[in-house]
Design a protein that fits this description.
DNA repair; Heat Shock Protein 90; ATP binding; alpha+beta; binds magnesium ion; five-stranded mixed β-sheet; nine-stranded mixed β-sheet; 317 residues; ATP-dependent DNA damage sensor activity; binds adenosine-5'-diphosphate
Length: 317
């Protein structure tokens, strides 16, 4: 949610830092447009959003946020401190929040550009939840995975992700104008070597308009696990049936049971996407889903058949 807020604020650099998988500290500084001082008192109240000005906006919403829930809910389970400066100001402001309200008046402070949101001691007041999270050490890799996916989609934003105090970033995407460069910076040159561009559109259909752009691995790509980076209308989502269908095409065409690398960006009318099938809203279902999946499957099949002819066989020792 914090990273999405930074993107909504037009940031071109987002550098996230984590301590103890985020339990001790989550720090998200960006160089976006910042938050005006007069908005700080209500910033963390529920339903505070700057992303809707008219009710009709709900139908055409382009930003990722609009419900005004993220910052508010964080202040109920952690200590949130916001440092921010807007353009043309000589200094910024810093203010901390608890349970939706400011703990003190905003204090003037030095700031460069944009906003830094810091969340400390997450779930300090929910002992059982904190315990469960303390015992799981797989949260940081999940964060790295998440930032990596964002970096592949938002190629003009320079993302980095590191553990607090570490010199080296675990993700460093750079900012680029080429999708392949972004994938190379995050997933490595060996992945990019085996990618093919793919495009599908169905703009002639009357009742359904969709476009897909992406990159998919070819027959030479070898991996044990599928990487599926799926953005629908610029939101990072999962769509299990699309993933299964894609894996099915690969297993049917490629003799070796290698799992694919897939990046897909699908755009379709917002009213065709149902995000309410899962509580986290990350798993979606689509109107005319079967048709869309069928079209995408056909396109992947065609790409794979063509590249299969020029496949490089490696002999086993
Ligand atoms: P939403 O994103 O749904 O509007 P949030 O609780 O995530 O709700 O954020 C509330 C509001 O705070 C946003 O609408 C935005 O105006 C402001 N905001 C939050 N984070 C940032 C940021 N990094 N830069 C600028 N404004 C921000
Ligand atoms: Mg938000």
């Amino acid at each position: 949610e914090l990273v999405e807020n930074s993107i909504d604020a037009g940031a071109s650099t987002v550098s996230v830092t984590f301590k103890d998988g985020g339990l001790k500290l989550i720090q998200v500084p960006d160089d976006g447009h910042g938050i005006r001082c007069e908005d700080l008192p209500i910033l963390c109240e529920r339903h505070t959003t700057s992303k809707l000005s008219a009710y009709e906006d709900l139908q055409t919403i382009k930003s990722m946020g609009f419900r005004g829930e993220a910052l508010a809910s964080m202040t109920y389970v952690g200590h949130v401190t916001v440092t921010t400066i807007t353009e043309g100001q000589l200094h910024g402001y810093r203010v901390s929040y608890r349970d939706g309200v400011m703990e003190n008046d905003p204090k003037p402070c030095a700031a460069v550009k944009g906003t830094q949101v810091m969340v400390e001691n997450l779930f300090y007041n929910m002992v059982a939840r904190r315990k469960t999270l303390e015992n799981s050490n797989d949260d940081y890799p999940k964060i790295v995975d998440f930032i990596s996916r964002f970096a592949v989609h938002h190629i003009n934003v320079n993302f980095s992700c590191r553990k607090h105090g570490a010199n080296r970033a675990d993700v460093h995407s750079g900012s680029t104008s080429s999708r392949l460069d972004a994938i190379r910076n995050v997933y490595g040159a060996s992945v990019v070597r085996d990618l093919m561009e793919i495009q599908v559109s169905d703009e002639n259909a009357v009742d359904e308009i969709f476009k897909m752009d992406g990159f998919i691995s070819n027959a030479n790509y070898v991996a044990k696990k599928t990487t599926m980076i799926l953005f629908i209308n610029d939101r990072l989502v999962d769509c299990t049936s699309l993933k299964r269908a894609t894996e099915f095409v690969y297993s049917a065409i490629l003799p070796q049971a290698s799992k694919p690398f897939i990046y897909m960006s699908i755009n379709l009318p917002p009213e065709h996407v149902d995000v309410n099938i899962h509580p986290t809203k990350k798993e979606v279902s689509l109107l005319n889903q079967e048709r869309i999946i069928e079209k995408i499957k056909d396109a992947i099949e065609e790409k794979l058949m063509n590249c299969n002819n020029t496949r490089i066989f490696q002999t086993q020792a």
